[in-house]
Amino acid sequence: MFLSVCDDSGFLSVILLARNILDIISIVVPIILIIMLSIELSKIVMGNTDKQVPAVIKSATSKVIAAVAIFFIPTLVNLLLSMLNVTKFSATACWNNANATTIAEFKAVEEARKIQEKEELGKASEEAKKERDRVAEIREEARKENEKKAEEERKKNENKNGGIMLGDVVYYNQCDPSFGSRLYYASCGSICSCGCGPTSAAIIASTFLGAEGHHPVDAVAWICSHGGCTASGTVAQTNADYLKSLGLNVSQQYSYSANRQFLMDQMATGKYLAIILVHNNTRRNIFTSGGHFFVITGVKNGEFTIAQPSRPAQNNQTWPLSAFDGDAVNYYLVEKP
């Protein structure tokens, strides 16, 4: 205990103050007592006191004893502290260390320790920063590696016509930079804006017949040349007509609301792809904010899988019949050749 206390310059400063006060008392008080004694003795000599000589002598003796006792108080304190020693870090050492020189030395040591702590803290902060930078670098390398692998996977799955393999389905994004900005119809806009119908038809054609010659641009050209492109999008029947022109077996147009379970049953056989038309009648904006075509590719765990030409993130989900209720209008089944 004394080791930590006696090394503290603040504590030693308090002890030094107490020592100084004690030294002042041990000098001043005896002087005062001696002066008082001298005055009383002078009165006796001069006969100016009514006190009896024995009483004066008794009082003088008391003052002498008190003066001597007070004078030796610092010595008695040192003796008492030495008697209280319990370890080599003694109370006497604390008392003796309470001087200006030692306090100055301890202050210098404390200041040096603070500087060292700041330096160590600075080094720790620097090391922490280096560690953070290292972790950030590892994360960045991992991100780049993931992007590289994703790009390699994309290129691996990309056919020469730009389609991406979505399982067994050749998928096209109608906003693909390689063709999405091409004109669909003058009063409607680009393929990205209005070409969901031909893009969905191209997905089915490329999946069943191969991508060569069945690109969305090819589908747009055929459908528009046969009157299927309008200011509001694509006429549903011309999507079916385009697929029929390629020799595919396309069903009649089915009303979704009247044949929703039939669609589920047929898709569950694995023999068909379906091109479906939806409108945002319920204002849920699930598949579109207006009118939209996309492809139903199959059934997984009782829910539809889809190839969505405008919202590719939805391709990774499955969709129950209820997701289509109120918005789905009609559909065509296209049989695998």
Which residues sit in consecutive blocks of at least 5 with pLDDT less than 50?
none
Q: Strand tally, please?
A: 12
Name the CATH superfamily assignment of the largest domain: Cysteine proteinases
State the name of the first-level CATH class of the largest domain: Alpha Beta
Largest sheet properties: 6 strands, antiparallel
Mean pLDDT: 81
Radius of gyration: 51 Å
Order of helices and strands: HHHHHHEEEEHHHEEHEEHEEEE
N- to C-terminal distance: 94 Å
**CATH-derived architecture of the largest domain:** Alpha-Beta Complex
Structural class: alpha+beta
- The total domain count is 2
Key words describing this protein structure:
single chain; 337 residues; alpha+beta; Cathepsin B, Chain A; 2 domains; 6-stranded antiparallel β-sheet; two-stranded antiparallel ribbon; 11 helices; 55% helix; rod-shaped
Structural overview:
It is a single chain. By secondary structure, the protein is of the alpha+beta class. The protein has two domains: 2-98; 164-335, Cysteine proteinases (Cathepsin B, Chain A). The protein contains eleven helices and twelve strands. The strands form four sheets. Strands 7, 8, 9, 10, 11 and 12 form a six-stranded antiparallel sheet that branches. Strands 1-2 form a two-stranded antiparallel sheet. The chain has a two-stranded antiparallel sheet with strand order 3-4. Strand 1 and strand 2 (169-171) form a beta hairpin. The radius of gyration is 51 Å and the shape is rod-shaped.
